[in-house]
Specification:
Elements lengths: L3 H21 L3 H7 L4 H13 L1 H14 L1 H6 L5 E6 L5 E2 L2 E13 L4 H67 L5 H35 L14 E4 L6 H11 L1 H22 L4 E11 L5 H5 L9 E9 L4 H71 L4 H36 L7 E4 L4
Antiparallel strand pairs: 1-3, 2-3, 3-5, 4-7, 5-6
Helix pairs in contact: 1-9, 2-3, 2-6, 3-6, 4-6, 6-7, 6-9, 6-12, 8-11, 9-11, 11-12
């Protein structure tokens, strides 16, 4: 096994390298934001990163933790003391009136450095966790934004469906008035219009809820409007290689960097606990004020050095003799290492599982989108045209027309849902990796 000092140096070097990378390269959350093809979404993500209260709190906590390092590595404050002698002790050269002293504790070599290193590693872990939280917030903002776009698209589809129903109702009313069509057709279409209007009201409620959740992320009033575009007209599929994605996640995920820092900190704490077996020293100076002798003998025959002050050098040592306490500190540090290593392993398994699941789901969502857009919608449009022609010609009734309208409505809504599912899944996958996979949005609709 490598000596403790070498292991600590290596761990510190790894964490320092990771810290250096974060200061020169764009943050993962910023890269994800910049790669977004939708300007409205890009502006929303930036606002979340600058205004989110939880993120501001975590950032302040991280910066405060880094300021702990110079405190942990500093020498203990020196101690000063003053002793006055109301009943002055008489010495050969005169009575002592006042004693002044100052002392400084000097820890064993390396103790202060280990304390400072542990504090820096704890601060590094918090900084990496803040970076990971920024990625999580951007991913959540993207998810909510896409869901809001879907609700808007859902409303457009319902509005178009209602317009068609109103037109069909007018035709059904006219046919009923002339005795050509039954009253049942009018009632059926009217009930469908009522149902659509109810769905539109429920849709507005869902949009209000999504708007409030987005505004909470960016610290705005719940009813603040969210600027957004429409769903992109076309999106492109991203090729996925699960093995490569996992490798990238291992290198980029800031939670893993934080776990490495916590492991290194636990090793530093163990070295610090072992150093606690070494003694600390105390050095100091004392100065005693002595008055000249004023007794009869002292006045008659003043001694040599009569009334001279006294300068003393002090020294001491702290003896670490309570072995139970020292052994408990070492064992505690060992347990912290086990905990940190297990936490990192659990995090790795979670990342691999999430990436594996999403890399399997995304191709399915893409195939579903292609099936609906390229085949089902085309068939539904043709079926509706045929039903309309048959309804006008009198070969089909209103119920047949409603069925065709329903098929097209369901297909159009399914296409919007599949598109949003793909965008949301891609956002989650990029958040799980820690970097963008490239733009997929093309020809976004104009912002409303």
């Amino acid at each position: 096994m490598l000596p403790t000092a070498i292991r600590l140096w290596a761990a510190a070097a790894l964490v320092s390298a990771a810290a250096g990378a974060t200061t020169t390269d764009p943050e993962p959350a910023d890269r994800l934001t910049l790669a977004t093809g939708d300007p409205a979404l890009r502006a929303l993500a930036r606002e979340v990163l600058t205004r989110n209260p939880g993120l501001i709190t975590a950032g302040a906590r991280s910066r405060a933790a880094r300021l702990e390092a110079p405190v942990a590595g500093a020498l203990p404050d020196p101690a000063a003391e003053v002793i006055a002698f109301p009943l002055a002790p008489e010495t050969r050269v005169g009575p002592q009136r006042l004693a002044l002293g100052i002392s400084q504790t000097l820890p064993w070599a390396g103790k202060r450095g280990l304390r400072e290193e542990a504090a820096l590693l704890a601060a590094d872990a918090l900084r990496e966790e803040v970076s990971a939280e920024r990625v999580r917030l951007v991913t959540e903002a993207r998810r909510l934004y896409y869901e809001l776009l879907f609700q808007d698209r859902h409303g457009e589809i319902l509005g178009t469906f209602r317009e068609h129903l109103v037109q069909h109702e007018e035709i059904a009313q006219a046919r009923y008035a002339t005795g050509v069509g039954p009253a049942q057709a009018v009632i059926k279409i009217q009930s469908e219009i009522t149902r659509v209007e109810r769905d539109l009201l429920e849709l507005e409620s869902r949009k209000l809820e999504l708007t409030a959740r987005i505004n909470r992320l960016r610290d705005r009033a719940p009813d603040t409007p969210v600027e957004h575009a429409g769903l992109p007209r076309r999106i492109e599929e991203r090729p996925l290689d699960r093995t490569k994605l996992v490798e990238r996640a291992r290198a980029l995920r800031r939670e893993l960097h934080a776990a490495d820092a916590r492991i290194a900190r636990a090793e530093t704490l163990e070295a610090q606990a072992r150093k606690a077996r070494r003694p600390d020293f105390t050095v100091g100076l004392s100065y005693t004020v002595v008055d000249p002798r004023d007794d009869a003998l002292g006045r008659a025959l003043p001694p040599e050095g009569n009334g001279d002050d006294i300068l003393g050098i002090r020294g001491g040592i702290r003896l670490p003799i309570w072995r139970d306490r020292l052994d408990a500190g070492i064992q505690q540090a060992v347990e912290l290492q086990l905990e940190a290593a297990a936490a990192k392993r659990d995090l790795m398994l979670s990342i691999e599982s999430n990436i594996g699941d999403m890399s399997r789901r995304l191709p399915l969502a893409w195939r579903q989108l292609r099936l609906v857009e390229d085949l089902l919608i085309v068939q539904a449009e043709e079926a509706l045209e045929s039903a309309q022609a048959g309804y006008v010609a009198g070969t089909l009734n209103a119920l047949d027309l409603l069925d065709a309208e329903h098929v097209l409505f369901d297909a159009t809504l399914a296409a919007a849902r599949a598109k949003v599912d793909y965008l949301v899944g891609l956002a989650k996958l990029e958040g799980a990796i820690g970097e963008p996979l490239g733009p997929v949005e093309r020809d976004a609709e104009e912002t409303r």
